[in-house]
Write a structure and sequence with these properties.
The chain has about 290 residues and is of the alpha/beta class. The protein has helices at about 60-70, 155-165, 165-170, 195-210, 230-235, 250-260; strands spanning about 5-15, 20-30, 30-40, 45-55, 80-85, 95-100, 120, 175-180, 185-195, 220, 240-245, 260-270, 270-275. The protein is built from six helices and 13 strands. The strands form three sheets. It has a six-stranded mixed sheet, with helices on both faces. A five-stranded mixed sheet has the order 5-6-3-4-7, with helices on one face. A two-stranded antiparallel ribbon has the order 1-2.
């Protein structure tokens, strides 16, 4: 794993009506990560450049695994033979290229991602080559439990826990987070990234590596809005519930409803908005 810092200090000028002063300010690091996939194919080039995503360095292997899984290119962590950083001639590229080698006999269809494979930090779907590629992989047949794992009254506490554990956000104020919570409210995983979709991919990749999927009895909390791409990734991971500090889009709500995932947004101390899911039988947290 990379040990490079997610934060960089820079001297800036701080202006206010009463004074102008020079201070040290912390900035979130944003760099490109190229994901390469190596497949045992005797009749063609075994390695393909799958995507370049703007991300915050750290947990790059989890990010690569999560991205490949949520894009439908992996079915299991057992599909992977090895993951490593590529040795590159340019110093600026070192630590920014990850190569995932699949096991012999494992083949994938990378055609759906061909075309534009660049994803900036605000776009989770920019790398799709066609409208058809924006759909949930056909192998996903997710049906969440009839009763969501957490009561809506518990969600504000979870968002507070998430915020308190966001180490990089506390220093920079410019990074997204995704947290995985158990039914008892315990925070199991937390990942930060300048891209909201990357934070979710890191979390799902880490859960896949641990053998936890599908995540039907768990809840994912995201620090921003619940866009279609985040709901799509959560559905592929089999998550039973998603909570967001912000709002979902109409397509995100429709997708969550189609696959039986509870979706809650606008989580505040005074209440939440429930978009999908039947919470009538959910136990109120103690």
């Amino acid at each position: 794993m990379t040990s490079r810092s997610a934060v960089e200090s820079r001297t800036i000028t701080k202006f206010s009506p009463s004074q102008v002063r020079t201070v040290e300010d912390d900035l979130t690091v944003e760099e490109p990560l190229e994901i390469r996939l190596a497949v045992h194919r005797p009749d063609q080039d075994p390695e393909e450049r799958i995507a370049v995503t703007m991300r915050t360095p750290g947990d790059d292997f989890e990010l690569a695994v999560g991205f490949l899984f949520t894009e439908g290119l992996l079915h299991s962590y057992r599909d992977i033979q090895s993951i490593r950083y590529c040795q590159t001639e340019k110093a600026a590229h070192r630590g920014n290229v990850v190569r995932v080698q699949l096991r012999a006999g494992v083949d994938v269809d990378t055609q759906r991602l061909r075309g534009h494979s660049y994803r900036n930090s605000s776009c989770g779907l920019c790398g799709r080559a066609s409208i058809e590629a924006v759909q949930v992989p056909p192998t996903v047949k997710h049906q969440a439990p009839a009763t969501p794992c957490l009561h809506p009254s518990a969600l504000y506490t979870l968002t507070e826990t998430l915020r308190q554990q966001q180490v990089v956000f506390q220093r920079t104020g410019s990074i997204h987070a995704a947290g995985l919570f158990a039914a008892d409210g315990q925070l199991l995983l937390l990942y930060e990234d300048v891209g909201r979709h990357n934070a979710v991919d890191k979390l799902i990749g880490a859960a896949l590596i641990r053998g936890w999927l599908p995540l039907r009895e768990y809840c994912i909390i995201v620090s921003g809005r619940a866009g279609f791409e985040l709901v799509q990734k959560s559905v592929v991971a089999g998550l039973g519930m998603m909570g967001a500090v912000g709002a979902p889009s109409n397509l995100a709500v429709a997708l969550a409803e189609e696959y039986g995932m509870a979706l809650v947004g606008f989580i505040k101390r005074r209440g939440v908005n429930i978009y999908t899911g039947d919470f009538s039988a959910t136990t109120v947290s103690s």
